[in-house]
Write a structure and sequence with these properties.
Helix content: under 10%
Radius of gyration: 16 Å
Protein name: Cytochrome c domain-containing protein
Organism: Enterobius vermicularis (Human pinworm)
Number of helices: 2
Order of helices and strands: EEEEEEEHEEHEEEE
Shape: globular
Number of strands: 13
Strand order of the largest sheet: 7-6-5-4-10-11-13
Distance between the termini: 33 Å
Number of domains: 1
Largest sheet: 7 strands, antiparallel
């Protein structure tokens, strides 16, 4: 499979009502490019928005793409890893496997886009490489989490821990496969759960 080519996937914001032709996705994958959009909320705080690729619907052993914004709306894009109870940015991997990183505020939304280069993973130091899932190998549950970040250090605060909380994560209800040669070239994920 050529580097960075995945099937087109759109994740619909939970509880969003759709009309014909009005698909407003929070996450969009096409040809290796990933675009995420999230409402900014209160700009006095730092914020983050993240997409995790997991073997199940729970945090732990997850590869994560994240955008972290300061209160002025300047953002950075990273790949990170969720352990059982923590998240750690993979700084070397972020330099190697993520290209064309953009994080900006547009129309009151955090907009994050990045090109993920799966063939470059082999160049990542082993200590970080083992924390990056091979997205071509099988289907993954997609987790969507957001939260606050320290306005000065941009250290991410834990997402919500109570179901229904604004910052409680969402997860797809089924695995989603990223592949170039799938017969269905578009997957729209509308069923997510907290």
């Amino acid at each position: 499979m050529p580097a960075g080519h995945f099937r087109k996937i759109a994740m619909i914001e939970p509880a969003m009502e759709l009309s014909d032709g009005d698909i407003k996705e929070i996450l969009y994958f096409l040809n290796g490019s990933i675009l995420a959009k999230e409402n900014l909320g209160q700009p006095s705080q730092g914020r983050y928005s993240s997409i995790g690729f997991s073997n199940d619907a729970y945090m732990g052993d997850d590869t994560v793409l994240e955008c972290v914004f300061d209160p002025q709306g300047h953002g950075s894009v990273f790949i990170s890893y969720n352990g059982a109870s923590s998240n750690r940015q993979l700084l070397e991997a972020s330099k190697i496997v993520l290209k064309n990183k953009k994080a900006a505020i547009q129309d009151g939304k955090m907009v994050c886009s990045v090109e993920f280069l799966p063939r470059e993973v082999q160049k990542v130091p082993a200590s970080e490489r083992k924390k990056i899932h091979d997205l071509n190998s099988k289907g993954y549950m997609i987790q969507y989490a957001k939260g606050l970040a320290d306005p000065h250090t941009l250290e991410k605060q834990s997402h919500g821990m109570v179901e229904g909380d604004e910052f409680y994560p969402w997860s797809t209800t089924r695995r989603v496969r990223f592949c170039e040669n799938c017969s269905d070239k578009l997957t729209i994920v509308t069923e997510m759960q907290q």
